[in-house]
Amino acid sequence: MAVMAWLARLALFYTATFLLAGASGEDGKIVNGTTAGPGEFPFVVSLRRAKSGRHSCGATLLNPYWVLTAAHCVRGSSPEQLDLQYGSQMLARNSSQVARVAAIFVHPGYEPEDKYVNDIALLQLAQSVALSKFVQPVRLPEPRQVTPGNASAVLAGWGLNATGGVVQQHLQKVKLQVFSDTECSERHQTYLHDSQICAGLPEGGKGQCSGDSGGPLLLIGSDTQVGIVSWSIKPCARPPFPGVFTEVSAYVDWIVETVNSYSPPSSLWVGQLIVGRSPPSLSS
């Protein structure tokens, strides 16, 4: 009986901790990261509340018309309530490089009550953004491409530097380790979905925090986005719990289908291929 009572208390504690750490527009900023170099992540953009210009989530540019982010960052919002700052690593509420949102496409299977499964959304921009040295599309992985456990990855975002900390005004980055699906589920003491991946450090201390949600996890040495920041246990970067990401490769078909269903036609960088047409030339 004592063992059963202890297990029940453990389950209750874990459930409460998960709920407190669940994804929200305020979740996802980087703990113990370093400042990104000039032009290092030209596809990372800041998703903001249009009225205040306040950063709420990360996102990535897919092409001049489309942006990728987490569903929990935009669900319940209307397009006119959101905008995006692009082309700069410094947050600025009065930035001149701001794009309005024309439409929001939340994955139809998104379910926050089921470990935030299908936590992915697309934003269609009201006008195209001009590509340049500091404004570039991100590369998507091949459909259903497996990201191996122990792979090295980098997370980029403006999130809090710690639970209860402050938003970072300059884009931050941190190197993380990808965990296998089995180890991820073991560390979280619950079965996670095949469409989710985990990344962090075995000893904790580095990873996502509030404000990083919707931002990218990228393979080291590549512009390939393998994950979207979804949720984490708080306090941020707490061992043994790695951060949980939506696995982008599980949704490439949905992304391509959604983008191709609307005009104007636009390209996507998938693996080694440009889906749609040749990439546009870059301005300086």
From TrEMBL:
<dbReference type="InterPro" id="IPR033116">
    <property type="entry name" value="TRYPSIN_SER"/>
</dbReference>
<dbReference type="GO" id="GO:0005576">
    <property type="term" value="C:extracellular region"/>
</dbReference>
<keyword id="KW-0720">Serine protease</keyword>
<dbReference type="InterPro" id="IPR001254">
    <property type="entry name" value="Trypsin_dom"/>
</dbReference>
<keyword id="KW-0865">Zymogen</keyword>
<keyword id="KW-0378">Hydrolase</keyword>
<keyword id="KW-0732">Signal</keyword>
<keyword id="KW-0645">Protease</keyword>
<dbReference type="GO" id="GO:0004252">
    <property type="term" value="F:serine-type endopeptidase activity"/>
</dbReference>
<dbReference type="InterPro" id="IPR043504">
    <property type="entry name" value="Peptidase_S1_PA_chymotrypsin"/>
</dbReference>
<dbReference type="InterPro" id="IPR018114">
    <property type="entry name" value="TRYPSIN_HIS"/>
</dbReference>
<keyword id="KW-0964">Secreted</keyword>
<keyword id="KW-1015">Disulfide bond</keyword>
<dbReference type="Pfam" id="PF00089">
    <property type="entry name" value="Trypsin"/>
</dbReference>
<feature type="signal peptide">
    <location>
        <begin position="1"/>
        <end position="25"/>
    </location>
</feature>
<protein>
    <submittedName>
        <fullName>FI18310p1</fullName>
    </submittedName>
</protein>
<dbReference type="InterPro" id="IPR009003">
    <property type="entry name" value="Peptidase_S1_PA"/>
</dbReference>
<dbReference type="InterPro" id="IPR001314">
    <property type="entry name" value="Peptidase_S1A"/>
</dbReference>
<dbReference type="GO" id="GO:0016485">
    <property type="term" value="P:protein processing"/>
</dbReference>
<feature type="domain" description="Peptidase S1">
    <location>
        <begin position="30"/>
        <end position="260"/>
    </location>
</feature>
